[in-house]
Design brief:
By secondary structure, the protein is an alpha/beta fold. The chain has helices spanning about 45-55, 70-80, 145-160, 200-205, 245-260, 265-280; strands at about 10, 15-25, 35-45, 60-65, 85-90, 100-105, 110-115, 140, 165, 185, 210-215, 220-225, 230-235. The chain has a nine-stranded mixed beta sheet, with helices on both faces.
């Protein structure tokens, strides 16, 4: 599919600094291990999705809390290199940004993560610039800035701008955003209250009249539900080098493809799965972008 024109996406949520190590295995108690490789990059679901969206030929803006601590220079530098703009919703605090430490197992690509989320750095909706949705074609919300996200979702619906959510896991407050969502792209770990099975998740989301719903299952097929159709989409099978951020890449790629003329929901899911699979073939959250043969 040809990228007919550049679109502008707004990605709302968590901004972190990711410290990523490649090792034979995670450490056991009281054990020290030596990594075989290391990288650092800006992270967070919305942030990585925005980087992917930008890489695929679009304009991306990430809205989240960054602050003014010296460590944030690494975040700002990485996003500037990736041509991603930042709307800092709380620029004055000098507290360290959330830092994620990740160990990727070399033989399997599986990752172990310890991190801070945005619970302690919630921005106020009063911090939103009045023009934040100017020229925006799609909004992605990852659930880490609920108050701000709800205001953006309401305003986006009023402007007929589609809203997608990255439902990696259920977070309190999502129920206030779902009435304004067009695309609910969730993982199998997204378990709303009293939901334990996939049929219950679909039923819960359908209560909000969300027209397009999909649930990812890692290397297993994506299941989807439309107003008058449901089904599965197979995903590429591969030997993963690193699965870190694959879901974030998937969401950013989905936002790219769904904004392309002639690309429907299931096509966008399938194309996004291809990009996410490509990212799993490389260590870290950026190296895959050096690969060729990417459908834009």
């Amino acid at each position: 599919m040809t990228n007919l024109k550049s679109h502008h996406g707004l990605f709302v949520g968590l901004v972190t600094l990711d410290l990523i190590y490649l090792a034979d295995s995670p450490p056991q108690n009281n054990q020290k291990i030596v990594a075989t490789d290391y990288t650092a990059a800006a992270g967070g679901p919305a942030t990585n999705a925005g980087v992917t969206f930008s890489y695929l030929g679009n304009q991306a803006t990430v809205a989240g809390v960054v602050g003014s601590h010296p460590m944030t220079h690494l975040i700002k530098s990485d996003l500037a290199d990736r041509q991603v703009q930042i709307v800092d919703l709380h620029p004055t605090p000098n507290n360290p940004p959330p830092v994620s430490s990740i160990i990727v197992t070399q033989t399997t690509g599986e990752r172990a993560v310890i991190s801070m989320n945005a619970t302690k750095i919630q921005a106020s909706s009063t911090s939103l610039p009045p023009n934040i949705l100017d020229n925006v074609d799609i909004v992605l919300i990852d659930g880490h800035q609920m108050s701000v996200s709800r205001e953006i979702a309401i305003a986006a619906q009023a402007k007929n701008i589609p809203v997608a959510i990255d439902g990696g896991s259920w977070k309190s407050g999502f129920e206030n955003i779902l009435p304004y969502v067009d695309y609910a792209i969730c993982s199998s770990n997204f378990l709303p209250p009293n939901c334990h099975q996939e049929t219950e998740i679909f039923a819960y989301l359908n209560q909000f009249s969300i027209p397009y719903i999909a649930i990812t299952h890692g290397e297993k097929p994506i299941t989807y539900n439309l107003r008058d159709e449901s089904g599965e989409i197979k995903v590429p099978q591969l030997q993963a080098v690193d699965t870190l951020g694959a879901g974030d890449v998937f969401h950013g790629a989905f936002c790219h493809y769904i904004t392309q003329k002639g690309c429907n929901f299931t096509d966008a899911l399938a194309f996004a799965a291809d990009i996410a699979a490509l990212s799993c073939r490389c260590f870290g959250t950026r190296t895959w972008m050096n690969s060729g043969n990417i459908k834009k």
